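Ticket #4471: structure export looks truncated?
Reporter: QA, pipeline team
Priority: medium

Steps to reproduce: submit the single chain below to the structure queue and open the exported record.
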Amino acid sequence: MDLVKNSKNQLVNGQHKVLFLFLALCLTISGCASMSKNECQTAQWQSIGYEDGTKGYSASRIGEYRKSCAEYNVVPDLAAYTEGRRLGLQEWCRPSNGYLQGTRGAVYNGICPKNMEAQFKLAMRQGRKVYEMRQKIKKQQAAIARLNGEFNAIEQDISDKETELVSNGTQPGRRILLLDEIRRSEQDREALRNDIAMANSALDKMNYRLKQMVAKNRYN
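Actual output as written to the record:
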């Protein structure tokens, strides 16, 4: 009985995990397009298309609505949805949004009308440069944090050895060894101090460059 009960619990837990992963996937790909019976029956397809357009969804999204509503014998109005999405894309495809999406690391998915595409892509490339610079800054900050960690570890090591050096119980031979180790650790510490200074200087230049890039943004 316990074996059967455990098996059932594992099955339920597995189903919960699958459901959780499915929901997480939906959020990752900009939300699932499932619709309830009431939503399908009362849908204003042009409004739905407009909303999807303003969010930059691809035209294939109507296929997801079609699948959801087929269960309730409701067929989406493709013409109304398409017109609404076309109007919504006029908002999404503004250069200002292209720049914003670029700063978020987004990649152009080819949905903008031809008469708006060139400016949208140009603005997105400018925003992408800001995104990439911010990523470089994050990596530089992480590198500096690692260097500081190493520096602090060496400082602690030197302090511990200096304490042992002056201890009454430390033998002469051990004192000689400690002096040599302290000297070498101090050299390593100075080398790290220089590395940290250079890394901070490089970070300052990156931040200055980022500030310039943001200041030159003409897509506000």
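Status: closed, not a bug. The export was complete when the record was re-opened. Leaving a note from the reviewer for reference: Residues 129-215 form one domain.
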